[in-house]
Amino acid sequence: MFASFRTYRVNSDQRDEVIRRVDESWLEELRKQPGALSYLVIATGPEELVSVTACRDEKTLETVIERSAEWVGGHLLDIDVTLVDQRHGQVVSHLG
User: Fold this and answer.
1) pLDDT tens digits, residue range 58-67?
2) For the chain, what are the domain ranges?
3) Cα–Cα nearest to 43, from 95, 8, 80
């Protein structure tokens, strides 16, 4: 299993709108991706969101990361969202 952590900066007054769009659009896209196992968005601060994506293999994760960037570029153009940090790697221990 492989996972990606992406940290985004977003204006606090737009955070709920970003989450709504993710729930209504991106999750449906991700459900169609074979090998995608889980996806979380964590509000780590008033102006910060962290997404966590887990996939069965590294190739699937790379595909999901590319599609995620395309989705953000196509669905959040009118919102000030900045990718601050991105990390990914092999999951070496997990519960579940």
Assistant:
1) 999 999 999 9
2) 2-89
3) 8
A 10 A CB-CB count for 70 gives 11
Alpha helices of the chain — where are they, by DSSP H? 15-21, 27-31, 58-75
pLDDT digits (tens, 9 = 90+) for 41-82: 999 999 999 999 999 999 999 999 999 999 999 999 999 999
Look at residues 11, 35, 23, 16 and name the one whose alpha carbon lies nearest to residue 71.
Answer: 23
Report the alpha-carbon angle 94-31-81, nearest 5: 85
CATH class, 2-89 region: alpha beta
pTM, entire model: 0.90
CA torsion sign for 28, 34, 7, 51 is positive
